[in-house]
Design goal:
It catalyses: RNA(n) + a ribonucleoside 5'-triphosphate = RNA(n+1) + diphosphate. InterPro entries: RpoY. GO terms for molecular function: DNA binding; DNA-directed RNA polymerase activity. The chain is of the alpha+beta class. The chain has two helices and three strands, in the order ββαβα.
């Protein structure tokens, strides 16, 4: 499944809508998506949203849609 992750780059500064950023990633479920972001970034996650059907189509057509991948830590 594809997930849209809204985040702040810094966990120390109070979140502001104007500084919210987005990344897209593929994961088995929402928990796995959160785990991947938390283990590979210092980001403050605001929201994780599953994208499917019309939502996924819209994001692909209207957003800077690019799947994020993380290097394996093995």
């Amino acid at each position: 499944m594809i997930y849209k992750v809204l985040y702040q780059k810094d966990k120390v500064v109070n979140p502001r809508r104007e500084t919210t950023q987005t990344l897209y990633l593929e994961a088995d479920n929402m928990v796995a998506a959160r785990t991947m972001v938390e283990e590979n970034t210092p980001y403050n996650i605001e929201l994780i949203q599953e994208l499917a059907g019309n939502s996924l189509t819209y994001e692909k057509e209207h957003a800077d849609f690019k799947l994020t991948t993380f290097e394996s830590k093995k």
